[in-house]
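Task 17 of the worksheet. Students: predict the tertiary structure of the chain below and write it out as structure tokens. Keep your answer in the requested format; marks are given for formatting as well as content.
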Amino acid sequence: MVIGLIIILVISQLICFYFIVILNTKIAKFKDLEKRQDQLIREMDDAISLYLVEMKEENDRLIDELSSIKQREFKNNDIKNQKVAMINLEEAQENAGATQDESLQKKEPVENIAQKAFVPKKMAANAYKQQAVNETPAVPQAKETKTVEKDMSSLPTFEQKVLNLYRQGKSIDEIAKITQKGKTEIELLIKFHA
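Model answer:
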């Protein structure tokens, strides 16, 4: 009896050791899994931070490019404005020399004439042409809109097409195939108008 009890105790201890080993391996797997997850989280954080840094650098580069383009345009406009001002100044000086008596009476120096805004002849001519093109008689436009409205009224709308097909006895599936729309959309449209 004592020998049987000792054998049962030994077997129960072996079973306990077996369960302890199994639990230990499972705990080790969970710890390994936690380490992998921590490593993945760190890698994702690094990747996101690197991506954000790259985005910031790209945005800074874009802002620099845009500002340099604006500066170039501003310089080009300044150069054009200076050329126009020089041409206008020369014209003003020529006109001032021809009408010196008039300018003395008005007491307006040549420099003030150059500061006034001058519009080049080409720009004025283009603006006049565009205005003439944009101004068309109102009566022909009304006629054109009436013909367009008549044409549009003769064309059936999507809803009219669907209802006509449904009245002709077509099934919802057939109507959906013909109109290339969804079955539920056709069903709702028919229910809404029924």
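Marker's comment: Residues 125 and 131 are 10 Å apart (CA to CA). The two ends are 93 Å apart (CA to CA).
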